[in-house]
Amino acid sequence: AYDPAFGYELGVIIREGIRRMYAEQEDLFYYITVQNEQFPMPPSPGDVTEGILRGMYRFRPADPASGARRASGLRAHLLASGTIVNQALEAQQLLGERFGVAADVWSVTSFKQLHQDGNEVERWNRLHPLETPRRTFIDQCLGKEKGAIVIASDYVKALPNSIARWFPRPPVALGTDGYGRSDSRAALRRFFEVDARSIAVAALDGLAREGKLERQAVAAAIAALDVDPEQVD
User: Fold this and answer.
1) Which among 47, 100, 152, 219 is most buried, taking Cβ atoms within 10 Å?
2) pLDDT class for 63, splitting at 50, 70, 90?
3) How far is Cα of residue 78 from the mean position of the Cα atoms in its chain?
4) What is the mean pLDDT of residues 144-166?
5) Residue 67 has pLDDT above 60, yes or no
6) CA 139 to CA 187: how far, in whole Å?
């Protein structure tokens, strides 16, 4: 199962599916979620084929020369799937320009692949106690990275939480639990707290829980971003 955000991701997934199902005659099928929101398609950031097929890759790193990174040293990693990647990109800008946090944005193309990989690695390590332990793909991507981790998606929080134990630190999971209707995508995403402002607040809260940021700074950010802490859950 894959949830691509961009056209080049979809192209990689379709080519791999045709190769495995038709050329290799493997007994499997591909489930691809394609959404109908229109937005400009960016070019591929480089050789990210492995990451697309294995479930995640770094789409847009924070600017290494940014004032945010030099001034505060605060770091965050914003993971998102499907069209919510665009909300993560907006949150990246908010965090850098307004709160001095240098955030990397990661595109999660498949929670299913990441979950399967984690379980397979755990099983192999359990049954090979004398061998060098294998590392999950999540650990290969983020094991040495510093900073708060936020995972946002259009799905219920149980999906990102299904891969949470393989992260170097507990991530903040944002999803669309519950029931809500709105007149626009923007209003719906704000209601479910998966919009850019909610992602930014989650990153700041994660930094506060790590002792890297004062709680007062998180409260000030909630007010500055016009996030209602008393909104119905």
Assistant:
1) 152
2) confident
3) 5
4) 96
5) no
6) 35
Per the CB < 8 A criterion, the answer to whether 36 and 141 are in contact is: no
Q: How confident is the model over 163-188, as a mean pLDDT?
A: 92
How far the first Cα of the chain sits from its last, in Å, is 29
- State the average pLDDT for the chain: 94
Count CA atoms closer than 13 A to 181's CA, side-chain side. 0
Dig out the tokens for 203 from the structure. Answer: 């990153």
**How far apart are alpha carbons 146 and 88 in whole angstroms?**
18
User: How many Å apart are CA 159 and CA 142, to the nearest integer?
Assistant: 19
Q: Which two tokens stand for residue 122?
A: 């755990």
CB atoms within 10 A of CB 127: 8
Structure tokens at 163: 């891969």
Which residues, 6 or more positions from 228, have their beta carbon under 8 angstroms from its beta carbon?
A: none
Please, what is the angle between helix 196-209 and helix 215-224, to 10°? 170
In this predicted structure, the answer to whether residue 88 has a pLDDT above a threshold of 70 is yes
Give per-residue burial for 73-101: e unless 16+ CB within 10 Å, then b: ebbbbbbbbbbbbbbbbbbbebbbeebbb
Largest CA distance in the chain: 58
- What distance in Å separates the CA atoms of residue 55 and residue 77, rounded to the nearest whole number? 16
What letter would DSSP give residue 2? B
